[in-house]
Design brief:
The complex is a heterodimer of chains A (171) and B (714). Chain A is an alpha+beta fold. Chain A has two helices and ten strands, in the order αββαββββββββ. Chain B folds into two domains: 91 residues, Carboxypeptidase-like, regulatory domain (Immunoglobulin-like, Sandwich), CATH 2.60.40.1120; 569 residues, Maltoporin, Chain A, CATH 2.40.170.20. Helix content of chain B is 3%, strand content 60%. Classes of the chains: A alpha+beta (171), B mainly beta (714).
Amino acid sequence: MSLRPAVALVAVVSAALACDAGLEPEPICARGLVGVCGTIRFSGTVPDSTDNVFVAAYTSFPQTCTQLILNRRPFIPSSVPYTDSVSLYSIELLPDTYEWVLAVWKKVGTLTLTANDTNLLRVAGYFRSPADSTLPGSVTVPNGGVADSVDFRVNFDSLRPATDFVTCTLR
Amino acid sequence: MHVALIGLFALQAAAGGGGVVRGEVRDPRGAPIRGAVVGVPGTTLYAFTDAAGRYRLAPINPGEVRVRAAAIGYAAATTTITVADSARADFTLDPSPFELTPLDVVSTKVPHFGEPSTSVAQVSAQDIARRAVNTVDEAIDKAAGVQILNGQINIRGSTGYVQGLNSRVLLLVDGVPMNQGDRGGINWDLLPVDQIERVDILKGAGSSLYGSAALGGVVNLTTRDVPTGFHTRLRVTGGVFADPPHPEWSFRNTTGTAGGADLSASYGTETAAGRVAFGARHSDGYRQQDARDHWQLAGKGRWQATARTRVDVSGAWAVDRYQVPLAWCSRSECDDRGQIFQPFKVDTTELGARTDSRKGYVSAQLRTVASDKFAWQARGSWLRTNFSDYRRSATEASVANRVGIEARAEAHPDPARTVLVGGEATFSDVTSDIFGTHSQSEFAAYGESEQRIGPARLTAGARLDYLAVDAGSLTAVVSPRVGGTVPLAGGTLRASVGRGFRAPTMAERFVHTFAAGFEIIPNPTLRPETGWSMELGHTTPVLGPVRIDAALFWTEARDLIEPTLVVDTTPKIQLQNVTRARIAGLDATLLAAPIPDHLTATLAYTYLTTQPVLAFRPTHLLTASADYAPAGTGGAWGLGADFRFASRPERIELEGFVDPRRVPVRVLDLRASWTSRQFDVRLLMANALNYIYNLVPETLAPVRTITVTASWSY
């Protein structure tokens, strides 16, 4: 066996096995995003009836169930991963100021886009005002920009019905 | 191979009676071979060569004697000489990169000049020097089937990672147990690597001879013998750490450096010798809050009291002060620069955490060769460890002692049989604000016999251990083992079955602290872990300069101690005997020397499967190494490379409570060297590709580090 093939073999095998990038930076906010982004820290026991968890935003705090169901942005949000202790989220939103950014827990069942949906939904957590953590914090999405560090917590052991926040009349 | 028998010398035999055989062991270029074993097979008589390649065997009965010399990386040689009072036998050993030192199991117990019945990996002083490392764990991390996880050794997936709270591998220094008295862990920097002659790694249960902690394997460090004459050695190292490969991970404005120096001096005659070594190191670390300082003092002495009796004493003391990067920074725990995690930074709530550590040992061994058929040995040792953890949340400290005594006898009733019997007692105590004040005692008796039947070699033995905590009731553990080797199909077939165990450490029983946001509560009722280990292996030469060694291994473990989440009023962690597990797999090593004496290569692969899935065990572990010394340069220049791959572990402990990020390990080390008679300079580029990875949660593994090591020997 000559030296050159042996060295080449070692080099090729090493390079092939070593070409993985390993750990890489993971920005919280996707590049080019216009909207809000941040992290959600989860705690508590995930209920067996969980369908998904999503993040929604409201330009003004909903006063009725109709507003609660129909004014949310995005109108039909996508789910965020909730099985890890920390989840990242990025949601596209139009530039504006949002008074309520929250995580919503959804029970297994079909949404009808009516007030009855509140039977399937719970407020799991929301972004809190840095000045007064008992109140929701407002978030401003600048033109062509992003509101980052919109971080909040979800405790699956204290999911709250929407009626704690909004007056609803259910059929 | 050729043997140069110089002849007989009419010298007076040393006091104590019997003849003496002296000589030298050299390679074909005339360079001395250090650490070779020279002995009379089937007797108690053996010795190791010193730095000048010299050995001395005594007392030899007058008449014809068969003397055999063997060393790692060289073909063994045998000669028969006639001894009156004194004789000389010099050996020239030809390179054979596949050869291991012919020692039974891993200690300097009984040379047998045959294949061991259990897999053994060896790291020689040349390997350590070639890799230009500063601690032993860095040197053995490249051995086949071995993985170091943040300081914890795994042999074929034995230990996993439990933050230093135990070890299922026993560390011996010259045959003396050195696992900590409180936590049972291993201090890899207890000894300067410059003082180590050889590391032997026994894979599989070794409790039949070594008792507790030898559940997954045994690592024996053999320190360098003290040569005759005056010798001194200076070793200086300096290096730099690579900066983070991405600007968003940057954490300092300067480049991190590391450096140190070791100085040793020795003087010896054939009757007595001594060596003292001092060293210091500083490292800025490769990440935030990772600086460390290390000082050490080590010594060794020998006294040939009579021709039949030798006394060895050794000791070391090391002091460390190191910052502790407890966990990398996750979102919002530091200036995260918009990143989900910052592997080079730490959680600011733990800024300033550091540990002060002091540890040391002294040991003394007495060996008397009563005749060529009987020898006995006694030893005593004291290991002391002391650490203080300083954190913002709490200060924790522990002082532990481990005192051991052992006596054993070795008999060769006939040339085909060897019998070893012994007794051992160990007393450990701890005084700590997290482990409390406790003590543990272990008493043991063991015996092993080796019988040659034609070309086959059979060994059988057992050990009985009694354990007591705080002078309470005794727990008995029996650890039998049988093994054998048979020449087969041009190679050697080996098989062994043995039982291993590990007594719970005092830390595991009594720890009460907080970690990762959890309260860790004690469990005084822990039972010993036990496990049956089986191995079937075969080593054979193939295709001329290529040799393959393959082994199937299987361990059935019971009562493994694992951290368990206990839901009380609040979630807590307690160590419990919860797991019955099966660890099985395949070890295969291919050694090739396509250009003997100039190019050698090793490819080692370990496949591991566990049932249930145990944390921190990679399924695939691969190591590839190559060393090249250009022809015509007299071996003065050398190039080498090591590559390590470990697959991403399927499971980690506390999944869901810690950052789950983990990636496979793909690390390439490159090295170059220049050596002359007195000087050598070595360049090491560890993790040359600056692969960013972690072995345990939230803990960044070392980045690319370029180190230059220069040594001068006199």
